[in-house]
Amino acid sequence: MEKPKIATTSLAGCFGCHMSFLDIDDRILNLIELIDFDKSPIDDIKEFTGRCLIGLIEGGCANEENVRVLHEFRRHCDILIAVGECTTMGGLPAMRNTIPLKECLEEAYLDGPTIFNPGAMIPNDQEIPLLLDKVYPCNEVVKIDYLISGCPPSADTIWEILTALLNNKPVDLAYGLIKYD
Amino acid sequence: MSDKVDFIIDGEEVSANPDQTILIAAEEAGIYIPRLCAMKDLVPFGACRVCTVLVNGRPQAACTQPVASGIIVENSSDKILKIRRTIIEMLFVEGNHYCMFCEKSGNCELQALAYRLGISAPDLPYLFPDRKVDATHPDILIDHNRCILCGRCVRASRDLDGKNVFQFVGRGLGKEVQVNSSAKLAATDIDVTDKAVGVCPVGALLPKRVGYRIPIGERLFDHNPIGHEIETNIHNSSVKE
């Protein structure tokens, strides 16, 4: 029988949640008995090769590409898990949400104390994904099945959820596995 | 003698003095009712509604509702837990609660209640309000982003410190805690040793230069849920008996 597949991605995140996922250490050998990785930075597969059981999302939606990838994950995955504070509430990138986007860009490219930009240009190439007006938590963009908070969530928390889902058991996190920091 | 009032919480019979609130009576019986604005030595306020229980099926704030003979109180039914989780989630999404860099994380009562109630993450739309930080005082700071309007600092400053440094201004989403001064916190007579500085359940009112002193793993709610002391006190005393 073909093994179920897991896809992972980092949107407006720092890859810290992926690092925390890798912190399951040698348990990854058990995991790989149960699943295959599909589109993921872990195996560097760039495009979906088929239907996936679980999609792990790291990071919120800060630009149009994040939204496109998130929709792609929703289309290809049976279960979407939002991993980490950025995914569930926007995280540190969401600190810009109280400042108008124009002011953010001007501070970053024109007015900041260490800026050298004689052409006074704000990057605007077609190759660069357009920024959204705000950073959005993923569950405000698509339906998310499980939210895991934490910055990052511990490897044990991620392991607990994955093993529960792969063994068809309800996800029930013990006290100490739910952390917001 | 028979001026005790008997009632039921979650099927358990509790005996209380007639002048007690449901919250205090339950606490003396070793039953923890979650709360944020209620605090020992402060007058009951009924602001946060986290202590909402069902009294004969009706939602009531346990911190202000007096006990009555024969009432049936639900503190842990699915219905009340659902209400309570929603209240906690609303407190999160109405402010800017960045636990990952907050000094109070691990010792925060709002966060601890979310942990206790098993909220893996708030699932309501975030408001991202634009709020300010007042760090003018040399020893104390106010971060309005984290304020949940519980009024503990307002009551503590007024009733315990006799200073009346804080007051609520505005209404609805515009409501906020302001200092009793047209200027900033530095212009008030608040002192870092005041009781008001220590009562904040979240990281909104903090003494400076003490953040992150307690390492992760040793903080207040790292191992035991909030309310654990209340639940275990009674257990210990009944063991002694």
Description:
The complex is a heterodimer of chains A (181) and B (241). With 181 residues, chain A is of the alpha/beta class. Chain A is 31% helix and 19% strand. Chain A has a domain at 5-96 and 134-166: 3-Layer(aba) Sandwich (Rossmann fold), CATH 3.40.50.700. Chain A contains six helices and seven strands, in the order βααβββαβααββα. Chain A is elongated, with a radius of gyration of 18 Å. Chain B has 241 residues and is an alpha+beta fold. Chain B folds into two domains: 5-76, Ubiquitin-like (UB roll) (Roll), CATH 3.10.20; 93-207, 2-Layer Sandwich (Alpha-Beta Plaits), CATH 3.30.70. Chain B is built from six helices and ten strands. Chain B is globular and about 50 Å long. Chain B starts with a strand and ends with a helix. The chains are: A alpha/beta (181), B alpha+beta (241). Chains A and B meet through helix 4 and strand 7 of A and helix 3 of B.
Kindly identify the CATH topology of the largest domain in chain B: Alpha-Beta Plaits
CATH topology label of the domain at 5-96 and 134-166 in chain A: Rossmann fold
Give the tally of β-strands of chain A.
7
- Roughly what fraction of the amino acids of chain A lie in strands? 15-25%
Instruction: Look at the structure and give the CATH class of the domain at 5-96 and 134-166 in chain A.
Output: Alpha Beta
Number of strands of chain B: 10
Topology:
The complex is a heterodimer of chains A (181) and B (241).
Chain A: E1 5-10, H1 16-22, H2 27-34, E2 36-37, E3 52-58, E4 61-63, H3 64-76, E5 77-83, H4 85-89, H5 101-111, E6 131-136, E7 146-148, H6 155-166
Parallel strand pairs in A: 1-2, 1-3, 3-5, 5-7
Antiparallel strand pairs in A: 4-6
Chain B: E1 5-9, E2 12-16, H1 22-28, E3 52-55, E4 58-61, E5 72-74, H2 78-94, H3 109-116, E6 133-134, E7 140-143, H4 152-160, E8 166-169, E9 176-179, H5 195-198, E10 205-207, H6 228-240
Parallel strand pairs in B: 1-5
Antiparallel strand pairs in B: 1-2, 3-4, 3-5, 6-7, 7-10, 8-9
